[in-house]
Amino acid sequence: MKRQARLRVAAVLAALGVTVSACSSDGGSTGGGTGGDTIKIGVVLPFSGVQAAIAKLEGDGFQVAVDQINAAGGIDGKKLEIVKADDQLDTTKAASLMRDLDSRGVKLALGGQTTDLCKAEAQAAARFDILFVGAHCTSKTLVDPPVSDNFWMTGQLDVDLTRANGESLAALFPQVQTWDVFGYDQEVTRGFWTQTRDQIAKSTGKPVQANTEIYVAAKATDFKTQLSALAGAQTGTKETRGLFLGVYGAGTTSFIQQARPLGILDDYAVIAQTGVYWTTARALEGSAPAIYDVHEYFWSCQENDLNTSFVRDFEALTGQKPDTGAYQGYVAVQILAEAIRKAGSAEPDAVAKAMPGISVQTPAGLPMTMDGASHHADGPITTALLTGDKSAPESIAVTDCKTVLASQLR
Amino acid sequence: MNTLLPAVVSGIAQGVPIFVIASGLTLIYGVMHVLNFAHGAFFLVGAYIVTTVLHGNSLGGFVLAALAAGLVVAALGTACEVLVFRRLYRAGSHVGFLGAFALFLAITGATVHIWGHDPRTVQYPAGLDGAVSLNGPRVATYDLAVVGVGVLLAVGLYVLLAHTSVGTRVRALSHDRAMASALGIRASRIGTLVFAIGSFLAGVAGALVTPVTSIDGSLASSYLVPAFVVVIVGGLGSVPGAFVAAVALGVIDSLLFAYVPSLSGFSYYIVVAVILMIRPQGLFGHASRATQIAR
């Protein structure tokens, strides 16, 4: 009896653990069933786990777009309603999540945090006749041809992001001839470097020298040994050296924190990164080193009415400035809403037929247009220098902005 | 020599924080036979406590914040032992492990409610924000200070366990719980004390990593896996074993990076695989005894 009682204690604790963990993930559904006057839109993101902070901002971007559309009367009188689904950054949950969304009457979904998740979720969505828009997907392997007929992608391709970064770096830092590389040992991060390197070489007409290339295990955050080696391996003068960072998230923060006392951050004319630096820069509370970054959007780079209303409404909802993830969510909803308007229906087949040629203005100041053949939208890409500055909003000064359409880079 | 010395120093600096985490883990296992998965959550709470109580970058403030982190986490660990683990001891180690995992989930989930999703950072303490040159390559002063703290904690633990009456009772309990109880040792009280000490170490370890990493939910598991590897390699329940294993693994990883870079990311797994094949009980473990604390 006592043994059973102890097992019950363990079972109750396990249930409590899962419950608290799940509640903290902010991944609960905000709707259920099929309403006659609403169009349900699934938002599939890792609301719990290591990317929860990023996913929360992305989810808030979706919410701002939905709130604005609803405030303007909805789509043909129907309000949009978000139904959240937490994929926990786990591709094996794709099928059960899509089944759950289907049972809740959701036939249109957005999300996709990583290439693997985009693929798994798009293919799982196809089995339930759900149209899926990859808002945060950036891999060329997902489109042209699309991984499934129901999949449409609004995230800009990483090859275009790196091209934009390389082009801007070549223009702003032509004297930098030698680069050190520090990144996660992943095909995608190695690719970021080689594509950036090739674009710099193409733009400057000179070969790019790679001095030290250090790759560490993915998700590692302890770089003491590698940084000690990097600090002792530099060549040339500071003015001719650049550092390319291929770590992200907690890895970027840890790199900066551990590199700072060694003086590494002051040893380069420029530090460049492809990916989200905003969250890290904000966490460093004004002490973030200047990093030349590329993504689709930086809130202070644009001055237009649409951006003003997006930033205002996002701040009202969250108390923060929108980052690129929030922008991606916002724009994906706008594309989907425009397709629903054009189709005159929220049925996935009708929306899919309406997708080709859909074009919306974006807060980044340039339009985004969906291509019917590749299932990928051509949209803006922005490069900028992000520097810690306690006097700036969120302690990040954004300068040297440059925004171009992705198609102009090819 | 130009590569060897900095690689060894960096390896030690890498291994010692892992030892501080692993020491609490192995101490609790050695006495209570609980493989405390919640230790990662305790570690995370320690780091968050520092972000909450520390303002500015004074060295004294940081030391006080680290002590506060240790004490708060010790209180949390004590509460967990009294309210949860004590009810599960007789149900077997698998039930205890389930309880520990549930606590891990519950505590990490609670940290999101208390401290939010956004990552946090902490400044280096004043005076420890520079680096020293070792025959060329540089090593952070803070890392050297952490090595010093780790050695102090190791010596302190050894003295506590080997040369005090409390340590004698702890060792007696770890060797033979029934006999120790028959001789008048209050097993439950000693068990709670061990949990408090182990949790204190987790809190201090969490505090020590705050200037060098991103403080967010992922921290709970990122240091826990290397800590478990250290406990296995050192011998389950052996504090000296944890120290030797942590330093050795750090140095091996560092040397592999210097001389065979392609293997450096796998060094912990290679070592644990080799140790499990040739000495399954770990470096300081004993095949015929489940526990060997302070041996």
Characterise this structure.
- With 410 residues, chain A is of the alpha/beta class.
- Chain A is 40% helix and 21% strand.
- Chain A has helices at residues 2-24, 52-71, 94-103, 115-127, 158-172, 187-204, 224-231, 250-259, 278-283, 305-318, 324-343, 348-354; strands at 38-45, 79-86, 108-111, 131-134, 151-153, 178-184, 209-216, 241-246, 270-274, 291-295, 359-361, 367-370, 377-378, 380-388, 396-405.
- In chain A, helix 6 (187-204) links the parallel strand 6 (178-184) and strand 7 (209-216).
- Chain A is globular.
- The model of chain A is unreliable at 20-34 (pLDDT under 50).
- With 295 residues, chain B is mainly α.
- Chain B has a single domain (4-294), classed as ABC transporter involved in vitamin B12 uptake, BtuC.
- Chain B has helices at 4-32, 39-53, 59-88, 93-115, 141-163, 165-175, 177-182, 187-209, 219-222, 224-234, 239-259, 267-278, and strands at residues 131-133, 138-140.
- In chain B, strands 1-2 form a two-stranded antiparallel ribbon.
- In chain B, helix 2 (39-53) crosses helix 8.
- The model of chain B has no long low-confidence stretch (mean pLDDT 89).
- Chains A and B meet through helix 1, helix 2, helix 7, helix 8 and helix 9 of A and helix 1, helix 3, helix 4, strand 2 and helix 5 of B.
Shape of chain B: globular
Alpha carbon gyration radius of chain B? 19 Å
Mean pLDDT of chain A: 89
Strand order of the largest sheet of chain B: 1-2
Number of continuous helical runs of chain B: 12
What is the C-alpha radius of gyration of chain A, as a whole number of Å? 22 Å
Number of strands of chain A: 15
